[in-house]
Amino acid sequence: MSGHGTTGEPDAGAPGVSGFSAGEVVSSAGGAARSAAGRAPAPVSLAELERQVAEHRDGPAYGQDSLISCDRLVRIFTADGVEVQALQGLDLLVGKGELMALVGASGSGKSTLLNILAGLDVPTAGAASVGGYDLLAMDAKSRLRYRREVVGFIWQQTSRNLLPYLTSAQNVVLPMQLSGRGGLRHKRQRAARAAELLGILGVSHCHDRRPAQMSGGEQQRAAIAVALANDPAVVLADEPTGELDSATAEQVFGAFRTANEQLGTTVVVVTHDQSVADAVHRTVAIRDGRTASEVVRRTEIDEHGRESVVAREYATVDRAGRLQLPRDYTEALEIRRRVLLELQQDHITVRPDDHPESRQD
User: Fold this and answer.
1) Which of 38, 154, 184, 316 is most buried, judging by how many CB atoms fall within 10 Å of its CB?
2) Where residue 321 falls among pLDDT bands split at 50, 70, 90?
3) Per-domain residue ranges for the chain?
4) How far is 130 from 70, CA to CA, in rounded Å?
5) How many other C-beta atoms are found inside a 10 Å radius of the C-beta of residue 308?
6) Are 244 and 220 in contact (CB under 8 A)?
7) Which GO terms describe its molecular function (predicted)?
8) CA–CA gap between residue 235 and residue 134 (Å, rounded)
9) Domain 95-117+137-282 has CATH 3.20.20.70
10) Short-list 113, 126, 108, 111, CA closest to 15
């Protein structure tokens, strides 16, 4: 099996098979990683190591050009003296203007990650930033401002997104008032902004309706308008189509696409809906608290001028050089504990260890 960066279909529930860090692959003299000729790589000199360290120190910071940057993010929960690691050194970069989805089995860590990005939870360790805000260093005042102005958040339960005693237009206006955009002289601008957003998202007819007078799909599209009220850098949505039928879910996702394309808003959606995951530009699978694989979709034009969407799946390699192999791959080759790596000129070959001990559970 050759590791070219692609995998089969991600299995969100599969246990990860630990890879090796890049440093271990290059410097190992014990035979786990060999050159094509079968010789161990020559040891790196002290001068070369110093040069590499200086180059790394003087180079651009990790994720500095990304809107969202998560670097070796850790989140540990403690209950009754038992520690649970929801995130185990997760790395993630999201560029400005992306429309992407996070997928994974229940307990994989995707909702924990979304709550951290929304400013609703604080990571235990690592580094995370959104729009220049350091999510580990914010005080209470900065965190409140961040939640009001930098991110918009949409819950799965439609009842959590809108105040029941306000109309949809009043719900959209409220975040503008809370963010300090109050004052009588701004009242007309706030009303115009609310009407504009409801119109863009196809629910202008709900302008004067309260949530109880709206369908579930209308409520979620109005909720997207609320999330967009203060022109946030990113909108985060936790299973926004989970309570909707397929036709209504398509309308709601269409609203996210409209916000992304017309307003330039970055959108990150946690979802179990495969139709949603297949419709975004990039889908990141999270497994066991780490990013495991990505599906990237691009529009290509063939020699006859016909457009088609081409999806390619990649295994992700984190900052420590670790990757996870899909369960169907490991089961097919009876991989249990370890693998052999061979460094070729343009790829790394991954082979199961043929020693009987390695096939024992």
Assistant:
1) 154
2) confident
3) 2-37+318-359, 95-117+137-282
4) 9
5) 9
6) yes
7) ATP binding; ATP hydrolysis activity; DNA binding; transmembrane transporter activity
8) 17
9) no
10) 108
Percent of residues in the chain assigned helix, strand, coil, to nearest 5: 35, 25, 40
Measure the CA angle with vertex 137, ends 21 and 75; round to 5°.
Answer: 50
- The C-alpha atoms of residue 43 and residue 29 are separated, in whole angstroms, by 9
Please choose, from the candidates 11, 7, 2, 58, the residue with its C-alpha nearest in 3D space to the C-alpha of residue 317. 7
Cβ pair 151, 232 in contact under 8 A: yes
Alpha-carbon span 157 to 163, nearest angstrom: 13
Residue at 237: amino acid letter: A
How far out from the chain centre does Cα 14 lie? Answer: 19
* SS3 assignment for 26-62: HHCCCCCEECCCCCCCCCCCHHHHHHHHHHHHHCCCC
Angle 214-217-223 from CA coordinates, rounded to 5°: 80
Say if residue 332's pLDDT is above 90: no
Q: Tokens 């979304």 — which residue?
A: 114
User: What 3-state class would DSSP assign to 349?
Assistant: strand
Question: For residues 160 and 226, what is the distance between their CA atoms, to the nearest angstrom?
Answer: 12
SS3 of residue 224 by DSSP: helix
| 35 in Cβ contact with 343 (< 8 Å) | yes
Q: Which residues pair with 87 in a beta bridge?
A: 75
Under the banding of pLDDT at 50, 70 and 90, the label for residue 150 is very high
Count of C-beta atoms within a 10 Å radius of residue 111 = 19
Work out the burial of residue 52: count CB atoms within 10 Å of its CB; fewer than 13 is exposed, 13-18 middle, 19 or more buried: exposed
- Determine the length of the chain: 361
Give the pLDDT score at 304.
80
Is the separation of the CB atoms in 283 and 295 below 8 Å? Answer: yes
Q: Are the C-beta atoms of 88 and 256 separated by less than 8 Å?
A: no
Spell out where the chain has E strands.
2-3, 33-34, 68-79, 82-94, 99-103, 125-130, 133-134, 151-154, 234-238, 266-270, 282-287, 290-301, 307-315, 339-343, 348-352
Classify each residue of 166-185 as buried b or exposed e, where b means 16 or more C-beta atoms within 10 Å of its C-beta: ebbbbbbbbbbeeeebeeee
Helices (H) then strands (E): counts for the chain: 10, 15
